[in-house]
């Protein structure tokens, strides 16, 4: 009897997590401005993994977490300027972090229920592509937001 109850509990947990992951994946595909196959032709493998598959690169092992040069961060997909070095700060997380985007009209915040958590996902408004997440633990004197981005979703243009 105990084994049966345990098996049912495990089955319920696995099903719930699986449904959340499926829901997040289908929402990503539905919001894209082009089919994934088109993005695969345009983006390099890392950008595709991050932006189309909503992947996350490892902390401290990405192109821009420790970039201190002046310039702008543009979408790897569209070339749109999304963030600037003036708004970048060292959050200690190992990912490039910003206090705000250049223009809120260029991004969109959507609910991300993948991986068994609920987070605020940042996507490029014109494409639906994943950029990272935003949290409420940024510098209080600069608005309190931390836009935690994936380097692979961007190209850096030095000033």
Strand content: 25-35%
Number of helical segments with 4 or more residues: 3
Structural class: alpha+beta
Based on CA atoms alone, the radius of gyration comes out at 18 Å
- How many separate structural domains? 1
CATH H-tier superfamily:
Peptide methionine sulfoxide reductase
How would you characterize this protein structure?
The protein has 159 residues and is an alpha+beta fold. It has one domain (2-158): Peptide methionine sulfoxide reductase (Metal Binding Protein, Guanine Nucleotide Exchange Factor, Chain A), CATH 2.170.150.20. Helices cover 28% and strands 25% of the residues. It contains 3 helices and 9 strands. The strands form 2 sheets. The chain has a 6-stranded antiparallel beta sheet, with no helix packed on it. A 3-stranded antiparallel beta sheet has the order 2-1-9, with no helix packed on it. A hairpin with a 6-residue loop joins strand 5 (107-112) and strand 6 (119-124). The longest helix has 30 residues, at 2-31. The chain is globular. The N and C termini lie far apart (68 Å). Residues 5-26 have low confidence and may be disordered.
């Amino acid at each position: 009897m105990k084994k049966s109850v345990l098996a049912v509990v495990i089955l319920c947990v696995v099903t719930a997590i699986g449904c959340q992951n499926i829901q997040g994946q289908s929402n990503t595909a539905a919001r894209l401005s082009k089919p994934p196959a088109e993005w695969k032709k345009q983006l390099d493998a890392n950008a595709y993994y991050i932006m189309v598959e909503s992947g996350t690169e490892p902390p401290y092992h990405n192109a821009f977490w420790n970039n201190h040069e002046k310039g702008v961060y543009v979408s790897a997909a569209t070339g749109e300027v999304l963030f600037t070095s003036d708004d970048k700060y060292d959050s200690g997380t190992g990912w490039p972090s910003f206090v705000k985007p250049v223009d809120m009209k260029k991004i969109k915040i959507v609910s991300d229920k993948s991986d068994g958590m609920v987070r605020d996902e940042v996507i490029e408004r014109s494409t639906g592509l994943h950029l990272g997440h935003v949290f409420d633990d940024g510098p209080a004197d600069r608005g309190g937001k931390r836009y935690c981005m994936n380097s692979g979703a961007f190209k850096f243009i030095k000033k």
